[in-house]
Amino acid sequence: MEQRFRDMIMQMREQQKPASPTPAPQFVPDQLSAEAKHLRDFRKYNPTTFDGSLEDPTRAQMWLSSLETIFRYMKCPEDQKVQCAVFMLTDRGTAWWETTERMLGGDVSQITWQQFKESFYAKFFSASLRDAKR
Question: Is residue 27 part of a domain?
């Protein structure tokens, strides 16, 4: 009887032990998300950064134009263009984007390339400057 009692106690202790944690899956580079692959491909073209400077509006236009050229060559899907462009913003450009993203709904995956360009041009290359250049 004592042996049976000890066996029951041992069984209860075994059941109360926490289960060993399952190992986390190892990240394999081949498992990159589609977004990460597009960004990696985009960066192979060595796009320039844009710091948000308002001193030379032509520079803003040239930056956006250079991105569009890269997008054409790499056949970048429309839904990836904004994320690639945002990755190349620095300083005041990043600050502008953070504000703009909130104003446009706060979800970068829902903001179209057209919306990005319109907001970008409104801030860094106003309509009067565009018309004057024509």
Answer: no
